[in-house]
Amino acid sequence: MAKQGKLGRGVAIVGAGMSKFGAFNDKISRDLFVEAFQDMKASVDKGFDPNDIQCLYVSAFSPELFEMQAHLAPIMANAVGLVHKPATRIEGACASGALAMRQGMMAIASGLCDMVLIGGVEKMSNLATEQVQDTLAAAGDTAYEAPTGFTFPGLYAALATAHMARYGTKVEDFMRIAIKNHNNGALNPKGQFNQSIRQIMDARKKKCAEKGQYCIDYKVEMDFLNDAAANPVVAWPLRLFDCSPITDGAACLLLVAEEIARDFTDKPIHIIGSGQASDYPQHEREDMTTIKAVRLAAQEAYEMAGVKPADIQVTEVHDCFTSAEILAMEDLGYFKPGTAVRAVEEGVTARDGAKPINTSGGLKSKGHPVGATGLAQTMEIFKQLRGEAGGRQLPGKNLRLGLTHSVGATGATSAIHIYERR
Fold it and tell me: Can you say how many angstroms the Cα of residue 214 is from the centroid of all Cα atoms in its chain?
């Protein structure tokens, strides 16, 4: 493979915002997009004139099926007062947001633009759960995977069981990731679930008591997660609390050329590494304990940034299912294959650990509006590196380097980005 080069021109993030994530019957996608855009505007320390935005890239997976709305980019441009600006929709399944940011980077690095808006949105809750599963399954191989009955929980369950068979990974290892990410998500006011597993467990016990119903006297979170009534199997070994939710939400980033970044803030976050790769659909892969596209994209990003996995201080990974977080940590080179579960058990990936993962709560707790997910991950890194993450701010660290990991479908697409505070 040819050696990857550097960006022809530096790119920095000077603003980041997101809507509240959740399920909102009274909103459509443009309402969420405007909410994220206004939040982004407020985050630009020295302000900016939106008329200076030269183009926008809008990431969305399937608004045609979720909301019966195609041709989304110009509609979002109009919603935020940017009508007549070039507006392009980017689709890469769950990696759509990361791919949109990469396109925006290239628009600036090429010299075509100095300021670009990146926005992602998905309004998923209009459909019933089974219809959402059908829509998401379209990101798989519909010729070979969907006809055999595979939904996305099923596809990721197959990855999980392959890891269990080779490395002895246990269902409790997946549960520990759910507990960690909910602990983080409980501190994220923009997230869909603002409760730890323990808080959810205690609320269930209280509700049962109020209704005079029998309830298991759970002592610890594992008791709750092992209760089939509270945490039913969705696709073995994955249970309800291993799965990210159906989510409505949007996120926006403001990218500018590096040389003008301090016109907008004294704390720009520079994008110093970017990698993207594709892979076979899942049924054609020889090894389901790893995602090769992630390894290739990460290698490209590390080389561009001139850093190593050990240098990264804060990471957001694509935990659409808890098992996916294990593969991500190993494919990024943070831990050797088969050893990430030990790191989770020892607290290494917790917020106060040596290698914190998903401080936002991850997709599991913060929520997963597909088209917005990658940009919300970047927003968390933006806040952590600037010391603005509130109650979930990493303690006692002089943060300089962060990374986001995005996966489309089961890894047919992956995009990795590395960020630096200078």
Answer: 38
